[in-house]
Amino acid sequence: MAYSKKVKRLLLYMCRSRSAEEVVTLVSGLLGMGRDRGFASLAQIAEAAPLVLTDAEWLELQAKVPEPRTIRAWLSKEKTEPTTDKATATPRLSMAQPRVEVHSDGIAVARYAVTDVANSSVVEATDCSAWVEVLDRGLVLPLHFAGTQETASEADAPKIAISRLKPARLEIAFTLPPPGQSPTGPLPDVKTSGDVPMYLPGPWIPPWNGEGCWLAQPLALHSPSPSLESFLPPGEYRIHVTVTCPGGVTAAGAFTLVSPTSWDGLQIGPS
User: Is-contact 261 170, C-beta < 8 A?
Assistant: First the structure.
Protein backbone atom coordinates (compact mmCIF):
# COMPACT_ATOMS: atom_id res chain seq x y z
CA MET A 1 0.00 0.00 0.00
CA ALA A 2 1.05 3.64 -0.40
CA TYR A 3 2.35 5.36 2.70
CA SER A 4 2.41 9.09 3.28
CA LYS A 5 5.87 10.61 3.76
CA LYS A 6 5.18 11.42 7.40
CA VAL A 7 4.20 7.82 8.19
CA LYS A 8 7.39 6.69 6.45
CA ARG A 9 9.42 9.07 8.61
CA LEU A 10 7.92 7.72 11.79
CA LEU A 11 8.44 4.10 10.73
CA LEU A 12 12.07 4.78 9.82
CA TYR A 13 12.68 6.34 13.21
CA MET A 14 11.16 3.35 14.99
CA CYS A 15 12.63 0.61 12.81
CA ARG A 16 16.31 1.48 12.72
CA SER A 17 18.38 -1.30 14.31
CA ARG A 18 15.25 -3.20 15.43
CA SER A 19 13.79 -6.52 14.42
CA ALA A 20 10.29 -6.84 12.98
CA GLU A 21 9.04 -8.26 16.30
CA GLU A 22 10.50 -5.33 18.24
CA VAL A 23 8.85 -2.89 15.85
CA VAL A 24 5.43 -4.49 16.39
CA THR A 25 5.82 -4.13 20.15
CA LEU A 26 7.03 -0.53 19.82
CA VAL A 27 4.22 0.54 17.50
CA SER A 28 1.64 -1.06 19.79
CA GLY A 29 2.96 0.91 22.75
CA LEU A 30 3.19 4.09 20.69
CA LEU A 31 -0.43 3.84 19.63
CA GLY A 32 -1.47 3.30 23.23
CA MET A 33 0.39 6.39 24.39
CA GLY A 34 -0.90 8.35 21.40
CA ARG A 35 -4.51 7.57 22.21
CA ASP A 36 -3.94 8.85 25.75
CA ARG A 37 -2.84 12.16 24.20
CA GLY A 38 -5.72 12.47 21.74
CA PHE A 39 -4.15 10.80 18.68
CA ALA A 40 -6.46 8.28 17.02
CA SER A 41 -4.04 6.67 14.58
CA LEU A 42 -0.41 6.21 13.60
CA ALA A 43 -0.87 8.77 10.81
CA GLN A 44 -1.90 11.42 13.34
CA ILE A 45 1.16 10.66 15.45
CA ALA A 46 3.34 10.85 12.34
CA GLU A 47 1.89 14.28 11.52
CA ALA A 48 3.45 15.60 14.72
CA ALA A 49 6.83 13.85 14.31
CA PRO A 50 9.54 16.34 13.20
CA LEU A 51 11.65 13.70 11.47
CA VAL A 52 13.33 13.57 8.07
CA LEU A 53 13.25 10.71 5.55
CA THR A 54 14.56 10.64 2.00
CA ASP A 55 13.40 8.16 -0.64
CA ALA A 56 16.81 6.50 -0.48
CA GLU A 57 16.50 6.00 3.29
CA TRP A 58 13.03 4.50 2.86
CA LEU A 59 14.31 1.98 0.29
CA GLU A 60 17.20 1.12 2.62
CA LEU A 61 14.76 0.57 5.46
CA GLN A 62 12.54 -1.71 3.36
CA ALA A 63 15.56 -3.81 2.45
CA LYS A 64 16.73 -4.18 6.06
CA VAL A 65 13.49 -4.52 8.03
CA PRO A 66 10.58 -6.66 6.76
CA GLU A 67 7.32 -4.75 7.15
CA PRO A 68 5.30 -6.31 10.01
CA ARG A 69 1.79 -7.35 9.01
CA THR A 70 0.46 -5.73 12.14
CA ILE A 71 1.69 -2.30 11.02
CA ARG A 72 0.14 -2.82 7.58
CA ALA A 73 -3.17 -3.76 9.18
CA TRP A 74 -3.20 -0.69 11.42
CA LEU A 75 -2.37 1.64 8.55
CA SER A 76 -4.92 0.09 6.20
CA LYS A 77 -7.69 0.98 8.66
CA GLU A 78 -6.93 4.67 8.54
CA LYS A 79 -9.33 6.88 6.61
CA THR A 80 -7.56 8.86 3.92
CA GLU A 81 -10.62 10.87 2.83
CA PRO A 82 -12.52 13.22 5.17
CA THR A 83 -15.99 11.97 6.04
CA THR A 84 -19.09 14.07 5.41
CA ASP A 85 -20.92 12.54 8.38
CA LYS A 86 -20.70 15.04 11.22
CA ALA A 87 -21.48 12.33 13.75
CA THR A 88 -18.26 10.47 12.93
CA ALA A 89 -16.07 13.20 11.44
CA THR A 90 -13.03 14.63 13.20
CA PRO A 91 -11.23 17.94 12.55
CA ARG A 92 -8.39 17.67 10.02
CA LEU A 93 -5.91 20.53 10.21
CA SER A 94 -3.36 21.36 7.53
CA MET A 95 -0.72 24.06 7.17
CA ALA A 96 0.12 26.12 4.07
CA GLN A 97 3.60 27.15 3.02
CA PRO A 98 4.66 30.19 5.08
CA ARG A 99 5.11 33.68 3.67
CA VAL A 100 6.26 37.15 4.78
CA GLU A 101 3.79 40.04 5.09
CA VAL A 102 4.06 43.70 6.10
CA HIS A 103 1.39 45.01 8.49
CA SER A 104 0.61 48.51 9.78
CA ASP A 105 -1.93 49.91 12.23
CA GLY A 106 -1.37 53.48 11.04
CA ILE A 107 1.25 54.17 13.71
CA ALA A 108 3.66 51.25 13.77
CA VAL A 109 4.77 48.82 11.09
CA ALA A 110 6.09 45.26 11.36
CA ARG A 111 7.08 42.42 9.08
CA TYR A 112 5.60 39.00 9.90
CA ALA A 113 6.37 35.42 8.89
CA VAL A 114 2.93 33.79 8.77
CA THR A 115 1.11 30.68 7.57
CA ASP A 116 -2.53 29.73 7.05
CA VAL A 117 -4.03 26.83 9.02
CA ALA A 118 -7.05 25.18 7.36
CA ASN A 119 -9.57 22.57 8.48
CA SER A 120 -10.83 20.23 5.74
CA SER A 121 -13.41 18.53 7.96
CA VAL A 122 -17.13 19.27 8.11
CA VAL A 123 -16.82 19.68 11.87
CA GLU A 124 -15.24 22.71 13.51
CA ALA A 125 -11.84 22.39 15.15
CA THR A 126 -12.14 23.93 18.62
CA ASP A 127 -9.54 24.93 21.22
CA CYS A 128 -6.77 25.03 18.62
CA SER A 129 -3.34 25.95 19.94
CA ALA A 130 0.04 26.38 18.27
CA TRP A 131 3.66 26.34 19.28
CA VAL A 132 7.10 26.50 17.71
CA GLU A 133 10.26 24.55 18.49
CA VAL A 134 13.71 25.92 17.61
CA LEU A 135 15.41 22.62 16.90
CA ASP A 136 19.01 23.77 17.41
CA ARG A 137 18.17 25.30 20.79
CA GLY A 138 15.57 22.94 22.23
CA LEU A 139 13.35 26.01 22.75
CA VAL A 140 9.55 25.55 22.64
CA LEU A 141 7.18 28.53 22.77
CA PRO A 142 3.47 29.16 22.12
CA LEU A 143 2.50 31.07 18.97
CA HIS A 144 -0.16 33.70 18.33
CA PHE A 145 -3.16 33.47 16.00
CA ALA A 146 -3.95 36.75 14.24
CA GLY A 147 -7.05 38.44 15.55
CA THR A 148 -6.70 37.17 19.12
CA GLN A 149 -5.60 39.18 22.11
CA GLU A 150 -1.88 39.58 22.72
CA THR A 151 -1.11 38.91 26.36
CA ALA A 152 1.87 39.36 28.64
CA SER A 153 1.63 35.71 29.73
CA GLU A 154 2.54 32.61 27.73
CA ALA A 155 -0.04 30.50 29.54
CA ASP A 156 -2.83 32.84 28.44
CA ALA A 157 -2.22 32.42 24.70
CA PRO A 158 -5.79 32.39 23.34
CA LYS A 159 -7.07 29.21 21.70
CA ILE A 160 -9.29 29.51 18.63
CA ALA A 161 -11.82 27.60 16.55
CA ILE A 162 -11.08 26.86 12.88
CA SER A 163 -13.93 26.07 10.50
CA ARG A 164 -13.88 24.60 7.02
CA LEU A 165 -14.86 27.93 5.48
CA LYS A 166 -12.32 30.21 7.18
CA PRO A 167 -8.61 29.33 7.64
CA ALA A 168 -6.73 30.97 10.50
CA ARG A 169 -3.59 33.06 10.07
CA LEU A 170 -0.83 31.92 12.39
CA GLU A 171 2.00 34.33 13.18
CA ILE A 172 5.39 32.60 13.44
CA ALA A 173 7.95 35.41 13.73
CA PHE A 174 8.23 39.18 13.26
CA THR A 175 10.73 41.99 12.79
CA LEU A 176 10.52 45.70 13.60
CA PRO A 177 12.22 48.81 12.20
CA PRO A 178 15.16 50.08 14.29
CA PRO A 179 14.24 52.29 17.29
CA GLY A 180 13.41 55.85 16.33
CA GLN A 181 13.44 55.10 12.60
CA SER A 182 10.64 54.77 10.09
CA PRO A 183 10.87 52.71 6.90
CA THR A 184 12.04 54.79 3.95
CA GLY A 185 10.24 54.60 0.64
CA PRO A 186 6.93 52.90 -0.14
CA LEU A 187 6.22 49.49 1.36
CA PRO A 188 4.68 47.00 -1.08
CA ASP A 189 1.41 45.26 -0.21
CA VAL A 190 1.08 46.72 3.29
CA LYS A 191 -1.84 45.12 5.10
CA THR A 192 -3.96 47.02 7.60
CA SER A 193 -4.36 45.18 10.86
CA GLY A 194 -5.01 45.77 14.54
CA ASP A 195 -2.29 46.51 17.03
CA VAL A 196 1.21 46.13 15.61
CA PRO A 197 4.08 45.57 18.10
CA MET A 198 6.39 48.49 18.78
CA TYR A 199 9.75 48.48 20.54
CA LEU A 200 9.63 50.99 23.41
CA PRO A 201 12.93 51.22 25.34
CA GLY A 202 12.65 51.95 29.04
CA PRO A 203 14.13 51.21 32.46
CA TRP A 204 13.34 47.48 32.16
CA ILE A 205 13.83 47.17 28.40
CA PRO A 206 17.51 46.92 27.32
CA PRO A 207 18.86 48.77 24.26
CA TRP A 208 18.37 47.14 20.86
CA ASN A 209 20.22 47.90 17.61
CA GLY A 210 17.47 46.83 15.21
CA GLU A 211 18.97 43.45 14.31
CA GLY A 212 17.32 40.04 14.73
CA CYS A 213 13.70 38.91 15.01
CA TRP A 214 11.23 37.59 17.56
CA LEU A 215 9.25 34.39 17.48
CA ALA A 216 5.55 35.37 17.62
CA GLN A 217 5.16 34.44 21.25
CA PRO A 218 2.21 36.38 22.75
CA LEU A 219 4.53 37.98 25.31
CA ALA A 220 6.91 39.20 22.57
CA LEU A 221 4.04 40.70 20.55
CA HIS A 222 2.76 42.41 23.68
CA SER A 223 6.12 43.84 24.82
CA PRO A 224 9.04 43.09 22.45
CA SER A 225 12.41 43.09 24.16
CA PRO A 226 15.79 41.62 23.12
CA SER A 227 16.05 40.03 26.57
CA LEU A 228 13.15 37.64 25.86
CA GLU A 229 13.94 34.01 25.05
CA SER A 230 11.81 34.42 21.91
CA PHE A 231 14.37 36.90 20.50
CA LEU A 232 16.63 35.33 17.86
CA PRO A 233 19.90 37.12 16.97
CA PRO A 234 20.74 37.28 13.25
CA GLY A 235 21.23 33.85 11.76
CA GLU A 236 19.49 30.85 10.22
CA TYR A 237 17.30 28.64 12.42
CA ARG A 238 15.54 25.32 11.85
CA ILE A 239 12.09 25.45 13.40
CA HIS A 240 9.12 23.08 13.72
CA VAL A 241 5.60 24.51 13.95
CA THR A 242 2.68 22.45 15.30
CA VAL A 243 -1.04 23.21 15.54
CA THR A 244 -3.32 20.85 17.48
CA CYS A 245 -6.96 20.56 18.51
CA PRO A 246 -8.54 17.97 20.82
CA GLY A 247 -9.46 14.80 18.94
CA GLY A 248 -8.35 16.17 15.57
CA VAL A 249 -5.56 15.62 13.04
CA THR A 250 -2.52 17.75 13.87
CA ALA A 251 -0.95 20.17 11.39
CA ALA A 252 2.84 20.45 11.45
CA GLY A 253 5.63 21.87 9.34
CA ALA A 254 9.43 22.13 9.38
CA PHE A 255 10.83 25.45 8.17
CA THR A 256 14.02 27.47 7.94
CA LEU A 257 13.72 30.92 9.50
CA VAL A 258 16.26 33.63 8.69
CA SER A 259 16.62 36.24 11.43
CA PRO A 260 18.05 39.28 9.61
CA THR A 261 20.45 42.13 10.30
CA SER A 262 17.82 44.50 8.87
CA TRP A 263 14.09 44.29 9.57
CA ASP A 264 13.23 43.97 5.86
CA GLY A 265 15.39 40.85 5.50
CA LEU A 266 13.09 38.44 7.36
CA GLN A 267 12.77 35.15 5.45
CA ILE A 268 11.04 31.80 5.96
CA GLY A 269 10.80 28.72 3.76
CA PRO A 270 10.77 24.91 3.73
CA SER A 271 13.41 23.26 5.88
Answer: no
